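Lecture notes, part 5. Sequence design as translation. It can be helpful to think of inverse folding as translation between two languages: the language of shapes and the language of residues. The source text, in structure tokens, appears below.
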């Protein structure tokens, strides 16, 4: 048996391994400390939705140079803020999707559509609006080829009591958030008794399993 020496290669390797593990641990802790608090949507946000504790949650993330593009949770929200466009649950809230009430440029419009086009929709769905106008050459109910009237419109609400509108079961009421300049297009279509069909945008929120 010999007394261990500092020149023993095994001892030196052991010391180096301990130092390396300590350095890696310190780096991991430092990286964790680089995380910053940001706001993420806790529910599906639609244009006009108020931003607060009911709709947002804090998450700690590492964004690097991209931090300025999102809503920070380092301080309380400055006054009344509203969503200006759609944000999915769990997504960080972009600054471009946040504004004051004066920044909102949409209005709620209730439309009557075919039940089949409303069956898969939920609040927060994004749809394209197609309109089939009546063919004036025929006295009976006949429609011209459908035309795309509005793109990427948010569904604000789908009334649960559809019977209050006195319409047939073949149709359903859906409230859309429409850009103010486009409101007249839907009003005119309904006044002309045109057929309105809502087509979900690919990737949009839909009824589970549909």
């Amino acid at each position: 048996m010999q007394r261990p020496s500092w020149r023993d290669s095994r001892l030196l390797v052991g010391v180096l391994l301990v130092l390396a593990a300590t350095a890696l641990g310190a780096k991991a802790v430092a990286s964790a400390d680089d995380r910053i608090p940001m706001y993420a949507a806790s529910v599906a946000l639609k244009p006009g939705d108020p931003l607060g504790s009911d709709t947002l949650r804090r998450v700690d993330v590492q964004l690097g140079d991209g931090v300025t593009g999102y809503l920070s949770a380092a301080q309380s929200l400055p006054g009344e803020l509203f969503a200006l466009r759609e944000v999915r649950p769990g997504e960080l809230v972009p600054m471009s999707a946040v504004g004051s009430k004066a920044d909102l440029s949409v209005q709620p419009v209730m439309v009557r559509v075919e039940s089949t086009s409303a069956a898969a929709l939920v609040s927060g769905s994004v749809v394209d609006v197609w309109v089939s106008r009546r063919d004036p050459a025929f006295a009976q109910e006949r429609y011209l080829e459908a035309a795309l009237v509005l793109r990427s419109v948010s569904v604000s609400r789908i009334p649960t009591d559809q019977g209050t509108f006195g319409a047939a079961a073949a149709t359903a009421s859906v409230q859309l958030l429409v850009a103010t300049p486009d409101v007249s297009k839907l009003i005119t279509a309904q006044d002309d008794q045109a057929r309105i069909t809502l087509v979900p945008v690919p990737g949009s929120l839909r009824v589970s399993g549909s």
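The translated text above is only one of many valid answers, since several sequences can fold into similar shapes. The first helix runs from residue 9 to 33.
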